[in-house]
Amino acid sequence: MPENDEIKKRLNEQAHQIDKDLTDTPGAAIEVDPELAEHMGAFEETAISLEDAEDASFYIDEDLNEES
């Protein structure tokens, strides 16, 4: 886990620097790598949750039982 902590620390430092740069230069465009962008929340999670998947499989089982 120390490796993950180091990665997270590095990403936090980079995110903080980008935030500072954007504060100092409003409207600036700063290119970041995908890993850092994801860390900063740039990508919206669109996958269904485990709970939704379990609910969907429950309803399928109910439908199959009703057809029998």
Give structural notes.
It is a single chain. The chain has helices at residues 2-24, 34-39, 50-67. Helix content is 69%, strand content 0%. The chain has one domain (2-67). The protein is elongated, with a radius of gyration of 21 Å. It is mainly alpha-helical and 68 residues long.
Question: Can you write the helix and strand succession as a string?
Answer: HHH
Structural class: mainly alpha
What level of helicity do the residues show?
55-70%
Total number of distinct structural domains = 1
Basic shape: elongated
Q: Main β-sheet: number of strands, strand sense, barrel status? A: none
Quick one: how many beta strands?
0
Q: Which regions are unreliable across 5 or more consecutive residues at pLDDT < 50?
A: none
How much is the average pLDDT?
83
Any idea what the radius of gyration is?
Answer: 21 Å
Estimate what percentage of residues fall within beta strands. Answer: under 5%
Q: How far is it from the N-terminal to the C-terminal residue, by CA?
A: 51 Å
Q: Main attributes?
A:
single chain, 68 residues, mainly alpha, elongated
